[in-house]
User: What shape does this take?
Amino acid sequence: MGAATVLYEVGNTWLIAFLYLLLIFIVADVAALCHIVPKTFLKDNVAGLGTVVGLVAVILTLGGIHYHHKYREEKTITTTKPLEKHLTIVLASDLHIGYHNRKPELARWVNLINAEKPDLVLFGGDVIDLSLRPVIEGNFAEEFHRLEAPVMSVLGNHEFYSDLNRAEQFFKDAGILLLKDSVAHFKGVDIIGRNDRTGRVRADLADLANGLEGVTILLDHQPYQLEEAEQAGVDFQFSGHTHRGQVWPISWITDAMYEKAWGHHRRGNTQYYVSSGLGIWGAKIRVGTRSEYLVLHLTN
Assistant: This one.
């Protein structure tokens, strides 16, 4: 387990390092062609190489510090639909617990969520990373039992990548209600949980939302076809998955791929929030993006 953890951290961190080394060398070559820097800057030049490596090391270090800071996003929805009380709901996506986001880190996130004193906690998928081994052997499930509110979740693509049956058992052991093309009711709120599109078979959203009279919150891991929530009359959709690319300039790619890759959005009467994720896949580095959770207030 220790060796796997180290290999995971080093291997994935190197992917980010390689990206920035590539970008810097390209910029340096262009600068040399334009006579901005001498051609000898990178050729047999220890000082030049040291400058490049040092710059990448600074980017990775600052990106690691930035990743560990968790941003608190807040949103209030005022509705005319009946509510039993003012509700505070904490929503988070893409925890990716496993080899790199270990149990002590999960414990810190649980403390952050509990500090909000929520009435309900909702996870938007990819709670588990690529492998179930570390979360099972490390008994990560017990940390979720410290959450001081009911917890519901949907599946993400990584739950399918790991082992779906064992992943579902993990959610059960953790005391998390898993919504698979189903609806849960909580104090005037109807929570719709869709199967992730990775599973290919999932119910039509219009059928799931039909006949619901409360405030409707949709959990759908991947933010594709946002018009479906609008057409189904959903009040609020929460998604994740994109991580907003995790690091710049990959964020430019996700911004181009999705109607909304990160942040607040609106279509007609339907409001959306696409989260860049509380955790992260791969290296624990963020450049130009952030790790976050959403505190949603529902009130009349």
In short: The first strand starts at residue 70 and ends at 78. The first helix runs from residue 2 to 33.
